[in-house]
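User: Can you help me understand a structure? I only have the sequence.
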Amino acid sequence: MAKSKTKSSKSCPICGQSAAAAHAPFCSKRCADVDLGRWLGEVYAIPAVESEQTDDEE
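Assistant: Let's start by predicting it. Here is the structure, written out as tokens:
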């Protein structure tokens, strides 16, 4: 039995339009560049957990 293919419409995380395969997960190069600019401008950040152990304690 063949799996039924449903059209999955992902939306661009920047503007909400339908994402284009060429720029996935974004809809355009512009939105991809906006996202890159946000990472480089430190608008986005990945939280880090500080370890209480220092290099001297190892």
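Now, to help you interpret it: Residues 47 and 53 are 18 Å apart (CA to CA). Residues 3-7 have pLDDT under 50 and may be disordered. Let me know which part you'd like to focus on.
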